[in-house]
């Protein structure tokens, strides 16, 4: 199995290279950075990878907010998880490659944390 990345100058060449860690830089031939990032996962920046971002509002059982926030913060794809006051007990910021991946993150991982009673997922949109 090969792991691809882009050299530090941000451009892959047409012959491929390898760095000192053994990571193989495969040629991409794609000028579009998003497509290059999809072919070279190790080279992805947050903006190139995170096609879908969302806030997940979480209600918990009484007294469980801190434990729930801590558990959620350890889940891959979660950028932050903070316990707050108000109608929701935890606010989570999550990132995923697409809507399906976001749904899997919420349903399979976040909602599986003990102490959660309800979630509301709010995808981030860029208007204008």
From TrEMBL:
Q: Where are the transmembrane segments?
A: none
Query: Which InterPro entries does the protein's record reference?
Result: Dimeric_a/b-barrel, Tscrpt_reg_AsnC/Lrp_C
Q: Which superkingdom is the protein from? A: Bacteria
Positions in coiled-coil regions: none
One Pfam family name is AsnC_trans_reg
Q: Where is the Transcription regulator AsnC/Lrp ligand binding domain?
A: 56-125
Identification of the protein by name = Transcription regulator AsnC/Lrp ligand binding domain-containing protein
Which species?
Pseudonocardia sulfidoxydans NBRC 16205
